[in-house]
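Service request form, structural biology core

Requester: graduate student, group of Dr. S.
Request type: structure prediction, single chain
Budget code: on file
Notes: please return the result as structure tokens.

Sequence provided:
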Amino acid sequence: MPYKDKNGKFCGFLNAEEKEGSGKFLRRYFLLDEKKSRLYYYKDNPGNLHADYSKTCGEIEIHFISRVSDARKLRPKVDNCFSITYAGRTIYLEAEDGDDLEGWIKALNDASKITVPVKHEDLGNGKKDSRAGFTAEIAGGVVCKIPMKYNKIQVSDEEPGSSDESPNESSGLSASAMQSYISGYCVKQGGMRKNWKRRYFVFSESGFQYYSSDRAKEPLRTLPKADIIDVRRSSSGHSSRDNLFEVVTAKRTFYIQCDDPADTDKWVNMMKQNLPTTQISLGQMERQLKTQSLRRPPTNSQEMAVTRVFPSKEWRPESPQRSSSQIDENQQKKRSWLWS
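Core staff response, request fulfilled:
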């Protein structure tokens, strides 16, 4: 398992595939620095190297990591393999044993979670605590400071565009302690910036909610069951994203990515089972009508009647054909008119 050094940082040796798709794994020393939000890797333990040779081989920014998952099924020939997906790239790593594999996955997932700072109330003398004046959000790899709004009811921490849905509801419990049909971490696409963020999702009687973390008590957004039209696996063109499913509402389609295909099936099946069948049928009805209209045979006998077939073997003029005697009389009249 990864151990902590004297500075309290997770570290250990892993075999890394530095060139994607090469199949060549090199032994590297990894160091997880949560304060700097970096995952460094070296050729050897920097404590055993001279200062001139202790430079890093590379680094990964933790805020860019979208998921860390077990990849033994994807790479069956590599023992204890797991993957790190960040910035549209996937790095495969090999741990020493199963415990080392689970330890690194847990440590990286905990470090890449997006947390919200604790809210501070008014100090009572008209001054607010300056330490809680801003919240930090990651947008396209850039740290943005967003002022927190103070009022007597709650602190607003919604994402842009969440005012379209129902207002947030707080039960006083953390997200992980709530009673739900299914819950867990997934990655969601934003509505305006189209960036992907890791959120904690909960599907319960009150609807479909997502939080900034499993310790948060107030949802960032709540979708009531009545607003959900359909839940299905995604067939859209997100080539760099797999294990996607869609939550369709009248105003927007939410794209959500799970860690593996099994989790995707669990979310889709659980939400379909606990939503009214009439709501799901509304989303399916439109797709069925398009296919049935093309395959449906004609029911009326008049639709089968054939009035005329083109081209015809024989010519049937609409006007009656003139006889040869009538043609001769007309020609004689023309000749007499010309010679007169």
